[in-house]
Amino acid sequence: MKKTFTVFLVVLFSISVLGVSAAPYPGAVGKKATLILKDLTNPVWIQAAEGAKAAAKDFGMQIEVVAPIVSNNNDEQIQLVQQAIAKRKDILILTPADSKGIVPAVTELNKAKIPVINLNTKINNESGRANSETFVVADNIMCATLCATELARLANGSGEAIILQGPSGGQVTIDLTKGAEDTFAKYPNIKLVDKKEAKFDRATGYKVTQDMLITYPNLKIIFSCNDEMALGAVKAVEEVGKLGKIFIGGIDGNKDAMASIKEGKLNATVFKNFWLQAYTAVEAAAKYLDGQKLPALIPVDLGIVIKSNVDKYLAM
Amino acid sequence: MKRNDYSRYREIKGLLAGVLLLFVFMSFAAEGFFGWYNLHNVLKDLLILMIVASGMTLVILLGKIDMSAGSVMSLASIVTTLLLSYGFHIAFALLGGLLAGAIIGLLNGYLVGVLNLNHFVATFATMSIAKGLALVACNGDIISSDSDILLFIGTGKIFGLFFIVWFAAILLLIMFFVSTKTKFGYKIYSIGGSEQVARLSGIKTSNVYLVTYVIAGILAALGGIFMAGKANSGNATIGDGYEFSVIATVLIGGTPFEGGKGGLLGTLIGAIFLVILKNGLSMLGFTPAWQYALIGLAILIAIVADVSINERRKAEEKRRVKL
Amino acid sequence: MKRIAGFALNYYKVILLFAILIVSSSVTQDPVQNIKNMIMIQAPFVMIYSFGMTLAVITGGLDLSLGSIAAFSTCAAAFLIIEDQIFVGIAVCLLIGAGLGLLNGLLITKAKVNPFIATYGMDWVIRGAVYIMMGGAMIYHFSHDFKVIADGSFLGISNLVYIAFAILAILMFVFQKTVFGRNVYSTGANIKVSRLTGVNTDMVIIIVYMISGVLASTSGLLYVARLDCAEAFLGKNFGLQALAATLIGGTSLKGGKGGVGNTVIGVLIMVFLMNCLNVLKVSTLWQDAVFGLVIVVSALLEMAKQRYANYLQL
Questions:
Q1: DSSP string over C148-194
Q2: What pLDDT digit, counting tens, does each position of B195-210 carry?
Q3: Domain segments of chain A: what residues?
Q4: Yes or no, beta carbons of B236 and A168 under 8 Å apart
Q5: How does C262-275 read in b/e, with b if 16+ C-beta sit within 10 Å?
Q6: Across the interface, do C228 and A217 touch by the CB < 8 Å criterion?
Q7: A27: buried, middle or exposed (CB in 10 Å: 19+, 13-18, 0-12)?
Q8: A166 in contact with B, Cβ within 8 Å
Q9: Distance of CA C84 to the CA centre of its chain
């Protein structure tokens, strides 16, 4: 008995020593990577930057996290890609703000033989000229599907629904709207009555929801493309005393959205786990640099946050 | 004219020194900044900005403004890619994009030059109209193009230099020539100096406004098409807020809102300043939050320096007159 | 005929306002609630920061930094308000607003920078500063005592209305009845002449931008109280919205004309129109285009009114 215990201790010790002294992916140590995000002013994207930095530290890599000044600006992302090429980075992790518009920049990366890890939003590779090593999926269409499904369940699969959108013409808005539209279409009794732009802004979401509540008195579901607008909608719905009768869902998993879920006001949000997304992508980059073969898809767990499980997410 | 050019040089001497200093600083401080690959790309972005800004410079020389430039870029990118997706020949698609810019420019010119509407109000309104038309046309979607020619326009090279560089070099030479050596350029400067005097001396001011705004519209549309080429897709948000960068470029270059003073040379230096600053700050690894603050600060410093140099010279001239 | 045309031109804004209202009310099932929403909640916010823009426009300038001033001052104040230092927090917020306005004013008068570029540059600097200060954090869950400022009502009328109208009354009084107000208008109309007649135009302009900053902070604070969250992106569209409202209201960009009274109508037209598009179920994609058209049409009508004033005996 005693012997087994000693052996166990020795094994444990050696594992922990190995874990500290030798990096899990020796080929990645000292390599330079760039992570291009869509935005670095929004809290959730700042979490992603932290996740990437934590991973880089764990795997001994150097990482630079950059994002356009004007959030979701494709032209600036192209410039950032070119800057990464100019700095001769070993690998690039890319979260495209515009999956079609980024293609020429990815072609350039392919030519420069800099491997690309695609994160969050898929690069459109219909032309075959924008190759990436793997896709770390936390796709917006999936997020929208998760949230819309939960809202449909709450509404017993029937009633009028609206979508609050981000700035028109942007990819994030297009993808999230598509996910929600397709999901609601599966329920014959759910009628998507309107889609309204509220610019990802809480104050605008509040105002637009007020108008929508007047326009559609029988409204049952509000699907919002981010938590900011969803919380604006919550406020408007709360003021007319319809909380609990109208089901509101957001996307992102902001701290205050989860607090609202705990209070029983907001009904659902999708915890996109930006920290883990970025960590996983950097780990994939490390594996690639270490010579390992990557699967075509690496899913990141997206969690639907509702009242019954919100404590778990709040504790994270 | 020659003396004028020389005095222009004297006015922008300070800015030129600032640009050189910035360039040297970035070359040493920012890893990867000083290299052909990066500088070539910087040049491309600079020239796209400069094409739009040269139209804006003419408008500001008239003492007016064009707030619709950014929206026209978006509209042109959408119209071009949309026509391509309907199967039109690339030539028609490009023409369509330019025509969209010309129409918005014509509308601006008509409202300002003929109906005598306040220029800011008129172009502020057409800014919304052009953006709205772009959104309605693309139905809020991103339009992808599989045209290799559009891609070439945005990213292709001839003799090792980007197509945009060749194109912009010729275009800008023409613009320099038009603005300084032709009757039309002279008219712009004299209207900007004093509209009444220009009118009394027999210049048909409304025509000059119309033509200038149409030129500005077409140049903005060109900028939008180049942007669409870079991305090989059309996007209704391409030009959001771009007009502000363009106006800042012109003002930094020493063409004031009052009109009649300054010119394209200054704008070019202003564009170099802004683009190098943006590229350099990003290469140095500043987060967007810091870039916001630093770019704003740099714009303010550049303008304040320009204004104070001008003020000092004015005071000097006054003293000389008194003597 | 002449009379009708004259009447229509003279009161076109009010007519437009009622026309929009009639259309939106006829299609909604609950027009009373709808009008209450617009007048008691949506309009006051926009009004307060639009007043700031209007004042700047009267002096012949404009203030593009309204939104970032609102964000910076409220975020800074939120650190105090969340600790239940409500009055200190509000004071700090307004002081920061005034201070940033002072910087705008100094840039414009002492450094002689054009207001457009001065406030645009400041907008970048201040927005950057608030992003750096917050570092992605948000401040929320304020105490009831603070939220009631924007949430509460008295005699069935929302506090927001009282606040907006108190501000309106003060501004109307100051700008129409006092020497300072007259100086503001004369500075806007002709700065050189005013200077020659002994007006300290620099001081006038500085004070106006300080007032504009305070108004931006005030509306920001009301948003924070109403939505229970202070965050760095607040007010990104304040500047352009306020400018649109001011222009639709008929304050001339040449300076010296118009006033906060006009802007009340401008804001109402904007809010009513947006609401009308929403209740008519018009796709959001049309919003920008419709807005542009309304600005052009109202500017053209304003011009027609002035041009035919004699002919129509207005």
A1: HHHH-EETTEEHHHHHHHHHHHHHHHHHHHSHHHHHHHHHHH-HHHH
A2: 889 988 888 999 999 9
A3: 25-138+274-301, 141-271
A4: yes
A5: bbbbbbbbbbbbbb
A6: no
A7: middle
A8: no
A9: 29
Q: Where are chain B's structural domains?
A: 34-264
Distance CA B274, CA B303 (A): 12
CATH architecture of A141-271: 3-Layer(aba) Sandwich (3.40)
Residue A247: what residue type?
Answer: F
Asked, for residue C23, whether it belongs to a domain, the answer is no
Amino acid A9: pLDDT: 55
Using CA coordinates, name the residue in chain A closest to C36.
A210
Residue B63 corresponds to which tokens in the numbers above? 């003492």
Q: pLDDT digits over B142-173, tens only?
A: 888 888 899 999 999 999 999 999 999 999 99
Structure confidence by residue, pLDDT tens digits, A251-275: 988 888 999 999 999 999 999 888 9
A84–chain B nearest CA distance, Å: 9
Domains A25-138+274-301 and A141-271 share a fold: yes
A247-252 and A219-224 beta bridge pairing: parallel
Q: Kindly calculate the radius of gyration of chain B based on its CA atoms and give it in whole angstroms.
A: 20
CB hemisphere CA count around C276 (13 angstroms): 19
Q: Does a structural domain hold residue C285? A: no
Q: In angstroms, rounded to a whole number, what is the distance separating the alpha carbons of residues B249 and B267?
A: 6
- Residues near B211 by beta carbon (within 8 Å), at least 6 away in sequence: B109, B184
- Convert the pLDDT of each residue in A147-177 to its tens digit: 999 999 999 988 999 999 988 878 888 999 9
Hey, what amino acid is at A105? A
Fold (CATH) for A25-138+274-301: Rossmann fold (3.40.50)
C76 in any annotated domain: yes
Q: Count B/C contacts: CB-CB distance under 8 Å.
A: 133
A-chain CB neighbours of C283 within 8 Å are 195
Strands (DSSP E) found in chain B: 143-144, 157-158, 161-162, 233-234
Distance of CA C277 to the CA centre of its chain: 22
| C-alpha closest to that of C216 among C39, C47, C41, C43 | C47
Q: By CB neighbour count within 10 A (0-12 exposed, 13-18 middle, 19+ buried), where does B314 fall?
A: exposed
Residue C8 placed within a domain = no
Asked whether the beta carbons of residue C34 and residue A214 sit closer than 8 angstroms, the reply is yes
Q: Which element (helix H / strand E) includes B233?
A: strand B233-234
Distance CA C204, CA C202 (A): 5
What ipTM was estimated for this complex? Answer: 0.90
Residue C15: other Cβ atoms inside 10 A: 13
Q: Number of folded domains in chain C? A: 1
Size of interface A-B (CB pairs under 8 A): 102
Q: Do C229 and A231 touch (CB under 8 A)?
A: yes
d(CA A208, CA C211): 29
Distance CA C45, CA C28 (A): 23
